Amino acid sequence: MKHLGFIFLAALVAAVILSFYAYRVESGNIVESGGEELKETLSELEIALSESLYDIKQLIESSTQSVIFDNENDIRRWMQTILDKTGASDIYCILPDGEKVYVYELPFALPSIDERMEDWYQNVITKESGGLLVFGWKDVRGEYAVEIAFAVGDLVFRISEYPLERFSSLLKREGFRLTLAAMTDKVGRKGLALASNVYKTGTLLEFSQAISLRLEDVSFLDGEPVLVGELDPLWMEEKRTQIRTFWTNVGLGAILVILALWLLFFFRKYKLVLQSPLALSTRQQILASIIAVIVSLGALSALVFILGRSPINALREMFSWAFLTRTGIIETLTRSVPVTLIAAGLCVAFEAGMWNIGGEGQFIIGAIATTGFSVFLFREWPAPFVLILTFLIASLAGALWALGPAVMKVKLGVSEILSTLMLNYVALKLLDYLVYGPWKSAEVKNFPLTDPVPVTLGKIPILNVHWGVLSIPIVAVFVWFLMRASIFGFEWKATGLGFEAARQAGIPVDKSQVFSLLLSGAVAGLAGAVHMFGAQYVLQHGFSPGYGYTAIIVAFISNLNPLAVLLTGPLITGLFVGNARLELTMNFPVSVSYLVQGIILVSLILVRNVFLYNPRIVKRGVN
Amino acid sequence: MRKAGLLAVVLLAVALGFGLKVGFVYVGPVGDAGWSYAHDQGRQYLEKVLPGVETAYFESVPEGVEATVKLRQLAASGFELIYATSYGYMDSVLEVAKEFPNTIFMHCSGFKRAENVGTYFGRIYQADFLVGIVAGAMTKSNLIGYVAPHPIPEVVRGINAFTLGARLVNPNAKVKVVWVNAWFDPATEKEAALSLIEAGCDVIAHGQDSPAANQAAQEKGVWSIGYNTDMSKFAPESHLTAAIWNWGPLYVEITKSVMDGTWKSEDLWPGFEKGVVDIAPIHPAVPKSVVKLVETYKYLFQKGEYKVFKGPLYDNEGNLRVKEGEVMTDHEIWDMYWFVQGVEGSLPSSGE
């Protein structure tokens, strides 16, 4: 145990140091030395470009004097000679009417989307750049390539994937101007902007490896070379971050390998001893939840770090958005209503040892019942009646959806995990059937939407979140009361802790299990109603992105305590809201959010088991 | 000269700093090779063509409350023009638009508008008609399979146009429809395609966001037709052609109108004439005469001289729906919820 603790601590310290380091890099403390490599790269590219440009300029001049284009075949033949002379891999010509001529007759009648997207090319070349446009870049493998377009009269030619090596032996000429600068835009993305003084526009490139140069005109013989020496430090810094991230990744990898090898040798001498499980103390349970959240945040930070960004910036962005901005709070609270309600209900079922995975399905059924009754039956009734009645009916519907699995569990021993999970899909299909079929609104032009519910909950002034938020504390306290201060609560607890023992003691275990599952279903159904009246209004395909599944995580993190759910529900939802924020500000893929959800649950289970079995390391052969 | 260059850069920085912020919300992942991918291509094109424009996006946003909060987040984060690219975002767009009257929203494939909400879509059914011609010409069994996402007018319209195209060159062709009930569900799409192939279909078309149906067709050695984007690289031997989106020019047009203040809330429904829809390169195995025919119709669409839905049109129960000499109005086409003759499949009955 001592050793494990030490390793854990060391890793933690290393991670903290690394993330601070990355933070420093991203904040721009290191500027000076990182630029050297970039400068070299740029001047290399610049030299190569000047060579190739001169070459092409010559080529164009010599060729145009002798060529008169009568028809497409003439152009094609001429392009062939250009191809032969330059070794370019592709060339085509854009005619004044936008048609394109290729050297090789393509088997297809139509050019691909990419090519058609480049009308601006033609425009820029003929009108703005005075005839020549060059893009150069260094790809991921570090190879240079350029793309050159030029105009001869009304015709625009384009050579692509031009390997620079072809020019390297040619004359070195100065004499073209280009400007280039690094900058940060409002969202905080860094990139390289390119411009020339003829050209009033530039482009900001996302990917930092790209070096794109635009030339201002074709008068090669005067002017001076570029701004390379006066690059904005921002660009250097970006480059620096890249390099550092790469090396720190290598470092991290090496540490992991050494750690693994060390462990291997370690366990040849020592072995792991597990203790027979005891119940966790409340303190341990709370600790486990906290560690799980920290571990998942740590995993997220590691991911952010590997993607080359600062974890501290990411975490700050996440939490300040989800909990400190008005729109973020609205988002967090609105989304946390269904999650927290369902989680409060799940506490009961889990406490009684009924693993209800069907919160999602029961939630959807609640929503369906809400629309069914409020839209089709209670439409004309006064609003308070509609609300109260529908809340009751939706709860009943959720409970009914849980009834089957509950009865099958106690009568036939069918695993409620499977049956509740499968019923989720049934609920989804039922939803689809209704919105595409009989319940489709007549007013939405055959779109699969139902009519909206006739009454809505309204918004809390200033906060702008619907009143349904208030249902969270009410339900949570109610459930807590049932669990802690009623005979049911005692029975659930006893059943959950030891089914056989409880039965021996005369507790009606079957009834108590059925009731616990029904209650959790009812609460999920109620959540469906609140969500419909408060925010969703109409039924539509896939309106729930898995609130019922997120609720499972929330219930576990809360250690099955409905009052804790009050806090953890919005907290965990806020975490996911913050994750999604990173999509917008840091261009993260949406899958990062799913990943973090998974990591929380897995690490929670892991930490609890560590506490439960209290693994100790002892020397082999001692006992 | 150097100073002039610097000045240009400074100007550029200013232009970028005060450029229009444009947000996109996609229903699928941007890597789906289909619907959301095509929109994202349009976004990238927009960024490339209008350098002052700054874009960002949310992907895989479920329809409903999730979309509402994401749209609100974009609006609150200073995005001035927001494209919501799925029909199910309709009510969410209107709800958020009411809260942010100074933000302009463009909703794709919807029909509800407000002072700051416009709608747009493309006449992809024109492209469906063209790929239908190819399918009709290539089928030997006269059975074409169609893997269809959701029973909604947008999809029904496409299947109908496809069928009309196929029966233009092959009056005996029949189109079998299987519903997947998802825009993006590669596993189910593949199963649906395989079941159609087993039922004797030798050309598989689809309206899905993934190339799963094309891949299934390639495995079984039958022809296939893509949708949304050129899917030939996923099934090079099987892929005959595809009805594709080309959102870029439309996005540029709309964004420009917002930038120079001429934008107004309206419904845009362009087709071939604006280049918003197109078809992918046609497989070399398709006879030259068929390609010529397709090109002719494409030309007619570009000139606005051909209407797909014109009488006489019968539904697949034999009832005359559009009389000889009549042309369906845009309104009727928009609501279309019946299959034309030659489609084998049924639509969930509506609650009307």
Describe this structure as you would to a colleague.
The complex is a heterodimer of chains A (623) and B (352). Chain A is of the alpha+beta class and 623 residues long. Chain A is built from 19 helices and nine strands. In chain A, strands 2-1-5-4-3 form a five-stranded antiparallel β-sheet, sandwiched between helices. In chain A, strands 6-7 form a two-stranded antiparallel ribbon. In chain A, strands 8-9 form a two-stranded antiparallel sheet. In chain A, strand 1 and strand 2 form a beta hairpin. In chain A, helix 9 (326-351) crosses helix 14 (487-497) and helix 10 packs parallel to helix 12 (416-436). Chain A starts with a helix and ends with a strand. The model of chain A is unreliable at 24-38, 63-67, 105-118, 136-146 and 160-243 (pLDDT under 50). Chain B contains eleven helices and 15 strands. Chain B is of the alpha/beta class and 352 residues long. The interface between A and B is large, with 75 and 75 residues.
Gyration radius of chain B (Cα, Å) is 21 Å
Order of helices and strands of chain B: HEHEHEHEEHEHEHEHEEHEEHEEHE
Number of domains of chain A: 3
Helix proportion of residues of chain A, in percent? Answer: 55-70%
Quote the beta fraction of chain A: 5-15%
**Low-confidence residue ranges of chain B:** 1-18
According to CATH, the fold-level topology of the largest domain in chain B is: Rossmann fold
Strand order of the largest sheet of chain B: 12-10-9-8-6-7-15
Report the biggest beta sheet of chain B as strand number plus sense, adding barrel if it closes.
7 strands, mixed
Per CATH, the class of the largest domain in chain A reads: Mainly Alpha
CATH fold call of the largest domain in chain A: ABC transporter involved in vitamin B12 uptake, BtuC
- On the 0-100 scale, what is the average pLDDT of chain B? 88
Nearest-angstrom radius of gyration of chain A? 33 Å
How is the quaternary structure best described? heterodimer
Looking at the structure, what is the overall shape of chain B?
globular
DSSP summary: helix tally of chain A: 19
